[in-house]
Amino acid sequence: xxxxxxxxxxxxxGDILTNxxxxxxxxxxxxxxxxxxxxxxxxxxxxxxxxxxxxQKQEEKQGTAATVSESPSRVRLNIIIVGAGLGGLAAxxxxxxxxHKVTVFEQxxxxxxxxxxxxxxxxxxxxxxxxxxxxxxxxxxxKPHNIAFRRWENGKVIGLTKLIPQFERDFxxxxxxxxxxxxxDAMYRLAIELGVDIKINSKVHDxxxxxxxxxxxxxxxxxxxxxxxxxxxxxxARKKVLGGVEQAPRKTGFAAYRATVDVEKMNAYPDTAExxxxxxxxxxxxxxxxxxxxxxxxxxxxxxxxxHPDRSDPSTWHMQGPDKILSGMREHFKGWDPTLSKIIDxxxxxxxxxxxxxxxxxxxxxxxxxLLIMGDAAHAMVPYMSQGAAMAVEDAxxxxxxxxxxxNESELPRALDIWETVRRQRTGQMQEASLVNxxxxxxxxxxxQQARDExxxxxxxxxxxxxxxxxxxxxxxxxxxxxxDAELEIRKAFSKSV
Length: 498
Description:
By secondary structure, the chain is α/β, with parallel strands linked by helices. It contains 16 helices and 21 strands. The strands form six sheets. The chain has a seven-stranded mixed beta sheet. Strands 11-6-5-15-21 form a five-stranded parallel beta sheet. The chain has a three-stranded antiparallel beta sheet with strand order 12-13-14, with no helix packed on it.
């Protein structure tokens, strides 16, 4: 561990700050005794100071050249990361940019991501672009114009979130969709370019939180100043962090079929070709089921996620043949919108995944303060807010910022405690919001469904609204979700803890 004098960990006096979902801060001007102080933080939801923040950022851009580098942290650590998925690579990138020495251990014999499409929302792209990822995604991403909610039986648009230009303007970052493999490859190549050491075929057998160190399945051991486990749903480190008590993600009673369709097949028919006319996200919602679709791979493939109730044992699914899985998928959505049904019939092969959700853990950092968990290991969630990977990216950015703000080695426990507190709250709320969408989307036809559709009607008709059952459009949820600045929240928490 190296400690370097100087650094830029302290907040600048006079900064105007906002957390993007209503809590804005303005550095108070010193006042004489007897006068009331101007609040530094607005505890109520407000966007009234956003224009000042935008002005400040514009001035900063004009005064400094854009760069993908960061000032080095004063405390420079030797860090081990377990897991080279999206979360592990995000942590490696964020920490390496602060001049930490990072080694990633991955159990797979070769790197890659299983699955098809993934959404990268604005709260994540803002960080990824800052890190320099955008050139690595060139030609592979799609920027959808809208998110359209559609009625299950006829495809009628019943809800509408406008992403372009609204999200890029309001949240200062675009909304992407991409193939998971392309996203992972871009993260990997950026990590390598930054100098991250990635060791594949290196399965971790045990963690020692006191050293801290890891032991591989082949018996080799490696030590570091800090060990970060981004080892997924079946995390080995989670039980260590929780003091020997496991709290694994639980079944939700739902599963999802994942598949892609060749766009050339869809373009052969006017009704399915119309779905491709604009690069939108289309979401059909109905009784206990929904289908999310969008184009990926630069518009060359049509991604589909078909959620449905399923309480059977996932360990038995591999015994079903491909034809049985396909027929089961089609049976679940029999009688739905004819255009959607035609697309479903174009699916040649599919994978079926159980949908799991964790509940907030009591801690993410071990009692020694030298082993921590992040990503799905800490906060698994159903994909109904499309924020699972985004939360891991936020975890990584927030962790790098927290360590950066530590002035010396003795401040590291405080830094990790602040990171854990901020991230536990944020991800716990996102787990909840994801489950809430599972409620909002799955009403059977009747009074609840009718009231929901009426609540979304203003956004479809272009009328003003102050709330919506569509969390992508609801102004309060939108600012909280997409306007969130993970690094800023850490800086604010640090300033309050002094």
